Amino acid sequence: MGAYICQVCDNMFCSHEVNYYSCEKCNTEFCEECWRERLHENQEEWADICGDCYAVLLIKVGELTEKEKEQ
Q: What residue spans define the domains of the chain?
């Protein structure tokens, strides 16, 4: 998988056993589980992560969530 830094929890390898995803525009890398935890805590904070790509990340995570529901 490589040495990814989760931009959500700021850990080189976060504690979650999940895949990392990256923004297609700016390559910001984040752990899906960390993303979901922070999203539930305070959605306002997400504007600071990935800047203008915030909406792109929300869409991407939303698509991942929908795919999981279908399984």
A: 20-70
